[in-house]
Amino acid sequence: MALRIVGLSPPSQPPRAWWWGFAALFAAFLLTMPIYFDIAVLFSVTNYLVLALLALSMSFLWGYGGMLSFGQTAFFGLGGYTYAVMALNLHETTGAMIVAIVLPMLFAAVLGYFMIYGRISDIYFSVITLVVTLILEKGIRATSGDQYVVGSVRLNGQNGIPTTPALQVPWNPKVQLEIDDVFYLAAILLVLTYVGLRLLLITRFGRILVSIRDNERRSALLGYDTRRYKLLAFVIAAGVAGLGGAMWGVWGNFVGPNMFNLGQAAQVVIWVIVGGKSTLIGPIGGTIAVQYLTDWLGTQGVGQVSLVLGIVLMVMVMLFQQGLLPSVGLIAAMARDALSGARRHRAPP
Amino acid sequence: MDDVAIYAYQIGLSFAIFILISLGLAVIFGMMRVINLAQGEFLMLGAYFCTLITKAGVDLWISFFLAALAVGVFGMIVERVMIRYLYGRILDTLLATWGLSLFLVGGVTTIFGPQSESVAATLGQVTVGAFGISLYNLVVIAFALALLLGTYALWRYTRFGLVVRGTMQNPAMAAALGVNTGLVYTLTFGFGSAITGLAGAVLAPIVGAAPPMGVFFIGKAFITVISAGHLPLLGTISASGLYGVIDGVVAYISSSVIGEMTVLFVAIILLRLLPLGITGRMRRGI
């Protein structure tokens, strides 16, 4: 596109000074929220922040790696379940948190090896990740019997694990995190992940990843083993999603098969596509906006939330390809060009 | 001897269900390259139409075909309003049809409620040794085979089938020869929707009709069609045969969830070995 969209710099460039200011402002806003809002608001905002981690993993993989994976909810659910099972077995949460990030990454490495090294096309990649998510959900739902036990923890099938323990302070396991502590942790993790992914994109790895998204064959002809980079991106995104899942378990003291749900997978796509997949900050905003809308619809009793989400998804795909944030940027860029063009015409030669 | 008959019946039924749920997708995705995630919901609509029409007093067998017709018309409307603008943009098609799928699940739940509707097909049983086999399940197997043969005959022996295959191969050339390609796309999508609706209606007496039923089948359908490769009919038959046998045997000796997981596992290994699907190396055929 010849038009340079306002607010979007190419990911290969290091972030400008204003971006650091923006990230700091964002962090400061999040961290001062507990002063202005009561605990109930903080509790629901924590949910949005945790889900935004999932959206970040999706937009990194889809927007910059060019791989539309519906399996991010699988890694999200896997992370949550791993955290719950490990924490209940070990009576210790720091290690459980680490395992909850590592296990989805391992799973992604195995699954990704078969898909990416099998050189299946983009669309099959999407469909297979979707099918894996569906089957995992079915598998978890079928574990209601007494025989499905990991260590000392029953998996409980449909009912999930309602006794997911709260996070302990790593250096002082006697202290458990309260609701506002979890909020701070979620905010810090979100900002760190956001800044981390943004900086990852200006490294050599990030640039090659974007070049693979733009033209995989050309990147391969330039001598890069594109499969390795794609697999690595898939594994990183799985780790971020697993972190989100574990944090979600910490937030609600609950993990359940709905984390793998197709509806959940659809929501992640909707957050990212509403926010605009060519940015990382857009999906965070998209998550908060859509999730707020979903919660609000739930309290209004207007019927089925999925009815509304379905319409949102169809309208976004058919009319606002780029997502809301880049669409606004595009309009701003067109207006700016039109204005400067008009000035040039009026100026004497 | 009885055991052999029961195994054959189990495998036959499992094969038939794979054929039923994936044949419509084989037309829409395999031939038209339209990735329709609302396929499971088309199946659900077929089942709902079948129960509604039967409740209105129409004979079950006639209601199958009315349901197929209704879903076919619905499919043509969807193609005209939505899919038409998305040809060649395969990821956007996937997302838009996913929106459609959510919309349909939400809409049907709003109208009919979340409970499952059922329709009775009391044909009785036949006894094989110590086992009883529902006669209706044998009818399902017959339906699957008839649908398969009918589709093959339509593509292979009619002028319509020839025009459709030509248009899918080279739309520009077909248009130059005077074919109204837009109409052909609409009709083919409608045909794929209609056989999906018929499959939903035929399955309704076994599984009932409920809003989330599409989700139960969509995974299997996509695994089958992706493994099939570029020859929609032959590939679907061979993939259905392979997965039907695996699913039937594993589900019989353990549980249906383990059966599905085994199918998925085999499918991922298969795609690692044959990335273009079972028929990837074949040049000719349907």
Identify the notable features of this structure and list them briefly.
heterodimer; A: 349 residues; mainly alpha; two-stranded antiparallel sheet; two-stranded antiparallel ribbon; 13 helices; 70% helix; disordered N terminus; B: 286 residues; ABC transporter involved in vitamin B12 uptake, BtuC; 11 helices; 2 strands; globular
Q: Which chains make the largest contact?
A: A-B, 44 and 39 residues
Looking at CATH, which topology of chain B would you report?
Answer: ABC transporter involved in vitamin B12 uptake, BtuC
Strand content of chain B: under 5%
Rg for CA atoms of chain B: 19 Å
Question: What does this molecule look like?
Answer:
The complex is a heterodimer of chains A (349) and B (286). By secondary structure, chain A is mainly alpha-helical. The longest helix of chain A has 27 residues, at 226-252. In chain A, 70% of the residues lie in helices and 3% in strands. In chain A, strand 3 and strand 4 form a beta hairpin. Chain A has helices spanning 17-36, 39-64, 72-90, 94-116, 122-141, 179-200, 204-214, 216-221, 226-252, 262-275, 281-300, 305-319, 324-346; strands at 149-150, 153-154, 168-169, 172-176. In chain A, helix 2 (39-64) runs antiparallel to helix 9, helix 2 packs across helix 11 and helix 10 (262-275) crosses helix 12. Chain A has a domain at 37-261. Chain A is built from 13 helices and four strands. The model of chain A is unreliable at 1-7 (pLDDT under 50). Chain B has 286 residues and is mostly helical. Chain B has a single domain (2-273), classed as ABC transporter involved in vitamin B12 uptake, BtuC (Orthogonal Bundle). Chain B has helices at residues 2-31, 39-55, 60-81, 90-112, 135-157, 159-169, 171-176, 181-207, 213-228, 232-253, 256-273, and strands spanning 125-128, 131-134. In chain B, strands 1-2 form a two-stranded antiparallel ribbon. In chain B, strand 1 and strand 2 (131-134) form a beta hairpin. In chain B, helix 2 (39-55) packs across helix 3 and helix 10 (232-253) packs across helix 11. The two termini of chain B are 37 Å apart. The chains are: A mainly alpha (349), B mainly alpha (286). The A-B interface holds A 68, 111, 114-115, 117-120, 122-124, 126-128, 130-132, 134-135, 138-139, 142, 262-263, 266, 269, 273, 303-318, 321 and B 35, 82, 85-86, 90-92, 94-96, 98-107, 109-110, 215, 218-219, 222-223, 226, 255, 257, 260-261, 264, 267-269, 271-272, 275.
